[in-house]
Amino acid sequence: MLLATFGSAVLGLLLGWAAFRRLSHRLPSRRLVLFTGVAGALFGGFVTRSAIGSGGLLASLAGAAVVAAAALSLLLRPSGALRRWSAPA
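-> structure tokens emitted (89 positions)
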């Protein structure tokens, strides 16, 4: 269980770092992105481990990665190129 927790935290940290490195212009502060990645991964690992039981480290890490990616995607701001201005009425 300790290995799954540590692995989930490291996985979330890596996902947060990769997201910030790739999309820094669309994300808030680095600290918030890294924290969200770790928190999302820990929560995802907990939920996955609760659902499937104690056997399945890889499944637990996969669940951690999915939830961390979903949590990080909520931080994204729209890019400047996709803004649409409505015509005045």
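The helical segments are 2-23, 30-52, 57-73.
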